[in-house]
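ok so I'm stuck.
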Amino acid sequence: MQEDLIGIAKHIKRLGLASLAHAQQHTFFYSSYNTYWKDLAVLQAAHAAEILIKARIAEHHPLLIFSEIPKSTKVNEEKLSLRALLESGKTIQYNELPERLWATTGYKIKNDNIYQRFGKLRNTIQHFTTPHDKDLTQETLEFIFGIIDPMIHDFWELYAVDYIEDPDAHEYIFKTLLKSNIDFLIPDHYKEKVEKDRLELETNVKVITFIKNSVDNFSSAAETDKLEIIKYIQNNFNLSEWQAQRLYYDARDKISSNDNSYLEWRITPFMS
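replied:
not stuck anymore, here's the structure
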């Protein structure tokens, strides 16, 4: 292999993981100053997948990520150089990468339909408009953890949840994933935290269900009735008074607004 092509696979792998971290930052968090925050998450997640697939292909040989390479008659050098590739080469397009990956490594991307659909979503946002009939956060989470997460684990035994820019993100992201009903791979060092968050959400669902089945009308409930319900929650779900109060009012808000999203939360235990 030409000397200036050595190291390409490592470089684009690191770049892909950095792009994944940036995509997750825009997916899990929100900025009131940037109205394109969610759109950027889609672009970055698709970019991360594209680069990481190319990195895996390039580990076999960097030239395999190209659909067109310069011809010897067009290059004023004895050997094909990185400069010539940059000037005249063309890399494989996003939608064609799964087939090149399979041909090179024998690996088939899981849920290729999600991969291709997300590519179309990326193109729509990048070249036309923001589709307001789609939940971009949900779409991006499903893509990252349905496509990228199993892929980088199969390639390099890596986990998507280890690549997020905010060092404190893991205090929050697992609940977001569970509430979004997302399956994800869990490294050993986060299993205890994920289980703790899952159990907390499971308790939330039980409390909301209990209150929904026990209280006919929040608006007409006397203050003494509310206090009794909170005390019941505290004692029967082994919670502190503060936790019971918080869950009571959270439940009241969901029930009053007919928000049944809690029924979709991923609260079943994960297989080890």
